[in-house]
Amino acid sequence: MYRVEERMFKEQAYRYFLFGILAIAVSFFLSDWILWEMAKHANLSGDIREILGEVFRLAFLIAIIFAGHMQSRILASDRESFAHGLLTGLPILAIAIAQLVLSFIQADPGYFSHTELVVSTIMIYTLTGIFEELLFRGVVLNAFQDAFAKKSAKTIWVSLILSALTFGLMHLTNLASGQDGVGTLMQVIEATAAGLCFGAVYLRCRNIWVVVILHALTDLSQSIGTNGQTAVDVQNTNVNAATSILSILPSLVILLGLTLFLLRRSKMEAIVSTNQDDFV
């Protein structure tokens, strides 16, 4: 019986890994090539190209999920798990909303007169939140979990850390777009910490749409805060970021602290049990 279950887990893991690698490779690299070709024949703005890229990546990923028969596990949602997830992720939600409000207050008033810019920013980061959570929490985290036939607190932590590292390291691709090395390193570190926290919420509620909301709101609040700054503010921010990694220390402490709190020992037994039940 154990060997049958072990084989089932491994086959499931291989399928998730296969489709996950395919989704990452095609979604990121093929979409960039297609949009580059489109830009040569059509006068598309940078925001339109980015929106089209996110739409393509998301559509392809959803097709991959259905082709791999993973939709019942990844896309499943009900009111109870959604409400539980929002309550579990309430600290993240509160921080994101507070940052969003603060960004609106501190933003250059002229920023909001550019309606197209504001709308495109909202669309881009909403689509990004959906895509990245479906991929890194829905596909990748589940793949790492399924790689272990026997579920335990240790294997849950290993799966979470590996999926968060994958999420963080994917931000190295920003180097190709001309982002500086220090800024990219800071983004990788912060994204890894965010991946741990989002993954912890997902493990607690098993509802992908909760972490989609948390992710999208977090990214949106940071984006509006940056885009809405004056040129002097942006320059000062870049100088501070380049001179010291300590600029992201407060957010790292919060994210890692929340992760440890959400996955404390008293909650881990239920998480392990839920992961076992996925294959009953």
TrEMBL record:
<feature type="transmembrane region" description="Helical">
    <location>
        <begin position="156"/>
        <end position="173"/>
    </location>
</feature>
<feature type="transmembrane region" description="Helical">
    <location>
        <begin position="185"/>
        <end position="203"/>
    </location>
</feature>
<protein>
    <submittedName>
        <fullName>CPBP family intramembrane metalloprotease</fullName>
    </submittedName>
</protein>
<feature type="transmembrane region" description="Helical">
    <location>
        <begin position="245"/>
        <end position="263"/>
    </location>
</feature>
<dbReference type="InterPro" id="IPR003675">
    <property type="entry name" value="Rce1/LyrA-like_dom"/>
</dbReference>
<keyword id="KW-0645">Protease</keyword>
<dbReference type="InterPro" id="IPR052710">
    <property type="entry name" value="CAAX_protease"/>
</dbReference>
<dbReference type="GO" id="GO:0008237">
    <property type="term" value="F:metallopeptidase activity"/>
</dbReference>
<keyword id="KW-0378">Hydrolase</keyword>
<dbReference type="GO" id="GO:0006508">
    <property type="term" value="P:proteolysis"/>
</dbReference>
<keyword id="KW-1133">Transmembrane helix</keyword>
<keyword id="KW-0482">Metalloprotease</keyword>
<feature type="transmembrane region" description="Helical">
    <location>
        <begin position="82"/>
        <end position="105"/>
    </location>
</feature>
<feature type="transmembrane region" description="Helical">
    <location>
        <begin position="208"/>
        <end position="225"/>
    </location>
</feature>
<dbReference type="Pfam" id="PF02517">
    <property type="entry name" value="Rce1-like"/>
</dbReference>
<keyword id="KW-0812">Transmembrane</keyword>
<keyword id="KW-0472">Membrane</keyword>
<dbReference type="GO" id="GO:0004175">
    <property type="term" value="F:endopeptidase activity"/>
</dbReference>
<feature type="transmembrane region" description="Helical">
    <location>
        <begin position="117"/>
        <end position="136"/>
    </location>
</feature>
<feature type="transmembrane region" description="Helical">
    <location>
        <begin position="16"/>
        <end position="36"/>
    </location>
</feature>
<feature type="domain" description="CAAX prenyl protease 2/Lysostaphin resistance protein A-like">
    <location>
        <begin position="117"/>
        <end position="220"/>
    </location>
</feature>
<dbReference type="GO" id="GO:0080120">
    <property type="term" value="P:CAAX-box protein maturation"/>
</dbReference>
<feature type="transmembrane region" description="Helical">
    <location>
        <begin position="51"/>
        <end position="70"/>
    </location>
</feature>
